Amino acid sequence: QNGCYVSLTILPELVLNALPARDSVTGLMDVEAFGRVARQQRHASRQGETDLQLFHLQGLPQQLDRLPAVRAKAVMSEIGGLLRSMATGSGLATQLDADKFGVVARQSDARQLLGLLQNRVEAVLKDEGIRDPAVTTVAETVNLDLKGLDAAGTARALAHALKTFAESGCLGSDNLKDCL
Question: 58: phi > 0 → left, psi -120 to 50 → alpha, else beta; which?
Fold first, then answer.
């Protein structure tokens, strides 16, 4: 009556095993699956349609520590859903570290995504009872221009970019080719 519909699809085991691994709380792809699928999506990147958006939610772990475990999981589930919705049609989004995330999104969406993520994370934390959510969102945009790179070069560059951002929260380049 209210316009809500639920669809259930039962997948054969062969298909289910081929799906990328996802976190059970956030629904985000694990980093290896993210890298593998992103490399497979090279053709869209070559046309200059997408960028890798890297987000550092500074202070998120400290805010989650202020919540009971069940509520912290609910916050992470909301953040995961938001990041998946930000991704282009492929749903390419991952968690790189406790407070770092990667999303493949349309180039024109970068500033809008940063503001949306910052506002939504603050709102979710406030909804969970944190009056002063001290989370600052910092973003880096990496151009996925892969012209001239073969599959191995693409894999190395993407792995380096994700690892560097996960470890330091800063990539220092806006072009994936610089990560070789």
Answer: beta
